[in-house]
Amino acid sequence: xxxxxxxxxxxxxxxxxxxxxxxxxxxxxxxxxxxxxxxxxxxxxxxxxxxxxxxxxxxxxxxxxxxxxxxxxxxxxxxxxxxxxxxxxxxxxxxxxxxxxxxxxxxxxxxxxxxxxxxxxxxxxxxxxxxxxxxxxxxxxxxxxxxxxxxxxxxxxxxxxxxxxxxxxxxxxxxxxxxxxxxxxxxxxxxxxxxxxxxxxxxxxxxxxxxxxxxxxxxxxxxxxxxxxxxxxxxxxxxxxxxxxxxxxxxxx
Length: 253
What we know:
CATH class: Alpha Beta
Number of domains: 1
Shape: globular
Helix content: 40-55%
Largest sheet: 3 strands, mixed
Distance between the termini: 33 Å
Order of helices and strands: HEHEHEHEHHHHHHEHEH
Radius of gyration: 17 Å
Number of helices: 12
CATH architecture: 3-Layer(aba) Sandwich
Strand content: 5-15%
CATH topology: Rossmann fold
Strand order of the largest sheet: 1-6-5
């Protein structure tokens, strides 16, 4: 099933990048192997760009794998610099918490949370909030090279256009920490996401290798772009929402 599924996704043009294909097939040969996809609550709804990745997550579930939907109650307070030319405006914690619950409800309409390979809903605030700054820097931050972090496309492009705050610069470390925690808690060794997330995802792959001496995998999908070539985003103009009260079904189609 693993090879057939990956072959089909490749044929459909649904895979942009992946770590070693043979090792990925070996991991997916395990019945019920888990994988995760993250969503940051930077708006009260998911959008059509999220739908592409969410459909892939559902496809894996239908093939017998265990999906984990991670809602970023912590990372949503920080902001991902990927694909952005300017700093995000930070949202209040209460507002982000409300958006977490709204996105949770939306995800329940796409994934099956019952049955043999029931989906899991997770919130990275659960493991990020209890960790002190000192613990985070000592236990997680020490495994990251600043040189490598500066070379990431999401950071390098911002340095060329006015700079980036330490808050957003740290985002890739937080996302890698998520991958490590899901690896520990759910034996999850595959993260999927949009192609703009490649650098963040492989940072998590590397962190797991360094901390746990185990292999993990990454797979990204092509981004759904707007007419001007920029990606759909929750904080960008022209978002097409999955919430029918924000974008009607007629407007969507």
